[in-house]
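Two proteins, back to back. First:
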Amino acid sequence: MSMIEAQGLGYTIGGRSILHGLDLKVGPGERLAVVGPSGSGKTSLLALLAGLAVPTTGQVLLDGVPVPPGRIPEGVAAVLQGHGLVSLLTAAENIEVALFAAGMAGDQVGVVVDRALAELGLADHAGQLADELSGGQQQRVAVARALASAPSLLIADEPTAEQDRVSRELVLTRMLAITAAGGSLVLATHDPDVAQRCDRVLDLSHRMPQSDRRHI
């Protein structure tokens, strides 16, 4: 299981300081909710933790080793805004491609894909192209793809934002369950109910420059 840690993390883009001097640590079995208004840096923080952005200052460590920029480390899965599905592949194929790339044996992939889709209420949509799915369904496929790899650390950006009440509970229950097996979860959310189901909450609104707060 993995420990993700940020030390003195800072991020500046377009001359604007998004994050400054941020420290955090999330260990095995822990759930961290990242909250704050739009523009407070939630998405930037998750991209930095996932290795998809490069810190301006400080560093991100995974099990004590600096996270290499430009790719998501082994054992880490991310659900980011935009979902990242391949439009010309089916829901099942989008998950299959990720599992094959991760080195899963071919005779296991089909079973894992079927289970991942079923657990998120998508069994009947396995053969549909990603472009044919609703926004909420695409988001659930992205979550299913992340969970199918059994990550030790899951990073998710607003993973319930496009879900109705029933689907929201499916997504949240499955994501929170990884911590029961010792995995770690970091998620950004605007939903106070989602935040309350995490162990700790990091509120980035307190770190926003005063000039930005006046425009919230």
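And the second protein:
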Amino acid sequence: MLKKDYLPLYFLSALGAGGLVVSFFMYLTFLVPHSGVPMATFDFVYPALLKGDWLSYVIAIALVFIIAFAILHYKLLLWNINQYKQFKQTQEYRTMVSGNGEVMLMILPLTFAMTINVSFVIGAVFVPGLWDIVEYLFPFALLGFATVGYFSIKIFMEYFSRLLTKGDFDFTKNNNLSQMMSIFAFVMVGVGFAAPGAMSHNLVVNAIGIFGAIFFSSIAILLLVIKLILGFKNMFEHGISKEASPSLWILIPILTLLGITFVRITLGLHHHFDQDLAKSSLFTLTSSVLALQLIFGMLGYKVMKEMNYFEEYTVGDKKSTVSFSLICPGVAFMVFGMFFLNLGLAANGIVDKYSIAYFVLMAPLIYIQYKTVAVYLRLKKKFEL
């Protein structure tokens, strides 16, 4: 049975759960030693779990949350697919795809790209010896992201070509940054391609991954410039829509994915293209991305606070599926914060790994993750998912 207020934005609930899986995987990636392998796998995680030291407790907690949110991700993904099939038969769907709201369809490939990432995390953490055959899996990962990328382009081209041929874009309803959902989808595909591009030892796989990452990131950056200018122009003219005000934070996950993509491209070029890796460049790159995230994070928080968004839509009784978009920025800031801390600071010797300063700098990231989980569970309960 179709949920009364269903919109494709409900896919954000599955997307948020998938993002939280990745956020807890960050503890394993950066805290569990995995010499010679670019990511923490079962063969490193399981022995560390059995040691019985402080790291064992961190690993145990991370694994519990990875399992819980992975199950939730798959459950909500299947529910959304079923609901979306029913929704396509309604008049509401036909109205949506004839206006600005058609861009919401981009959340489908965005969520499916996240599903590939979640599956990769689950496989890496819980399947013994997976890394021994990973080179055979990378082509399938490239194929998966290519498929998602194809549908991303297809959906976007249908939407964008309609706007260009009919000129029926409603600027009065564009007083937010929700149109950047398409950019979010493209950068998610780009960062997916970048993983084999960074980690594969096969030159062809490496090159295809890097090309795919550059291809989709280039599309995203071009659209980012266009839609950022249009979005702020309309917000300055009409003020931001309260219900859509969380869209101010959409730049945080976009910046995280672009930042990770560029990090992976840098590592991939170092592995196969005789490009020397300058650790200082990782510091400047992660610092630049973090600075932009902080600016938009503070701006979005101040705007939503002044409009009483949190009191009404997260704590209060008002319901809006857009509220689920609050999860992605929290996840993204925590994830990229871990990249900044480890690749920007620790790798350059600015702070020592596992030192007091290291964990002090990690504390705000842990707090943001805690708040994100709390908001997610509150929204899940409110929407009875």
